[in-house]
Structure formats: structure tokens, C-alpha cells
Design a protein that fits this description.
By secondary structure, this protein is mostly helical. The protein has a domain at 38-112: Winged helix-like DNA-binding domain superfamily/Winged helix DNA-binding domain (Arc Repressor Mutant, subunit A, Orthogonal Bundle), CATH 1.10.10.10. It has seven helices and three strands, in the order H-H-H-E-H-H-E-E-H-H. A three-stranded antiparallel β-sheet has the order 1-3-2. A hairpin with a 2-residue loop joins strand 2 (81-86) and strand 3. Helix 3 crosses helix 5 (65-77) and helix 4 (54-61) crosses helix 5 (65-77). It is elongated. The relative contact order is 0.12.
């Protein structure tokens, strides 16, 4: 444990004992970085509600297949999106992780909308 010069808040030592390892912060920063790009945010929002191939994703958000593929690669690398091969195509969807689910809820809250899939399943 590091020695703190002032310790103004007496609780800081107990807080520091519970601080996640440095690598955890890097992982979280990588996930949050995915939301820093409007195109990735659109793709992520779309995949929160549907399972699509790169061609449909590109057409839906108005970008080229190359641009969509690039962003999908970053989203996959961060673990937010998964891809499953079906014949010649890969179909992408939101990963079933706590982080991806939390981002789904965060995105919905940011746009102050109800998840469209909640209306479909009802």
C-alpha cells in the first residue's frame, strides 16, 4: 500500500484496498472508448436490437462495407460484439456479457428510448 502524504479522508485506505488492478482500468477504458465514435455507437445500438451481416449493417447506417467491417472488428476486439458464420456471411450481435448488457442499458438511457425489442417480445 502506498503511503499517502495527507490522508484528508480517513476512508481512503479502505477504499484503496478494494481498488481493482490496473489492468482492469485499461480493459474498462477500452470498452468505453468504443462509445467515443458515432459510427460504432450506431452499430452497437443496432446490434443491441438485431442480428445482422456486415452488408445490412453498412446499408442501415449509411457507410461502406469496409467502414462497417473496420468498426465491427474493433467492437469484436473489445468483446462487445460477437460474430457467427452462416454460410458465406458472418452475422453479428451484441455479446452476452455483463459489460455489453450494461452498455445496452446506458445507450438506451442516453437516448431516452425504450428498447425496440421489448415491444417485439411483448
Amino acid at each position: 500500500m502506498k503511503e499517502l502524504p495527507h490522508k484528508h479522508d480517513k476512508n481512503i485506505l479502505s477504499v484503496l484496498e478494494k481498488m481493482p488492478e490496473g489492468g482492469k482500468f485499461s480493459q474498462a477504458a477500452s470498452v468505453f472508448a468504443q462509445l467515443g465514435d458515432g459510427t460504432r455507437l450506431k452499430i452497437l445500438w443496432l446490434l443491441c436490437h438485431s442480428r445482422e451481416c456486415v452488408s445490412d449493417i453498412a446499408a442501415a447506417i449509411g457507410v461502406s462495407k469496409a467502414v462497417a467491417s473496420h468498426h465491427l472488428q474493433l467492437l469484436r476486439k473489445s468483446g462487445l460484439v460477437i460474430g457467427e458464420r452462416e454460410g458465406q456471411e458472418i452475422h453479428y450481435s451484441l455479446n452476452d456479457t455483463d459489460e455489453a448488457k450494461l452498455l445496452h442499458k446506458t445507450i438506451e438511457a442516453m437516448f431516452k428510448i425504450t428498447c425496440p425489442s421489448q415491444h417485439i417480445d411483448s
